[in-house]
């Protein structure tokens, strides 16, 4: 298969060199890496992982491990602060006020992530999904963390898992982000990432349509609309308390 051509498999497409290396008689083994803000982590994050595992399996790629990291602290703090400034400004002209966003500290996000993984284990078909701390040596963004994991697991194929929003924001995959050799991109309804623009001769890209039940999940919507039922059961009460405290 040549770069820029596609292989349709239901709601999946694949591009690049990975397909050349799949023996007819057995699956290629690989690991997934994904990074989320997790503010808060929710069922949609776990659904994205499950879709990627199943989608890659249909492409004859057997996922053995999934490594999940969390966005670094200063990025998330700046993002939440900026969004709350905007919300406060909008609330000055609103009759019904929008809730401010809560910024979860890293230890809390780690705890919520581990609880979410525990509650969703039946969705992963036996694949090991774990939290991976990519910030031990300082703050690290998505491509840097991917590169670090590739360097650490030299005998493994690592597939970077992301949504179309992150895919399209990382325009220069051949530059600083050129370390991302293989990627699985999960789309929402009516989304179609322009992946032809980010190909090189040594990259593989897999596109999977997200499950319908997770199409409208986002951490922002959960906070804005107080949809705490989309959080792991064991952390809903704690998050509701933290969210309420942020409004004071």
Automatic annotation (TrEMBL):
Keywords of the record: Nucleotidyltransferase, Transferase
Lineage of the species this protein comes from: Bacteria, Pseudomonadati, Chlamydiota, Chlamydiia, Parachlamydiales
GO MF: nucleotidyltransferase activity
Name listed for the protein in its UniProt record: Putative cytidylyltransferase
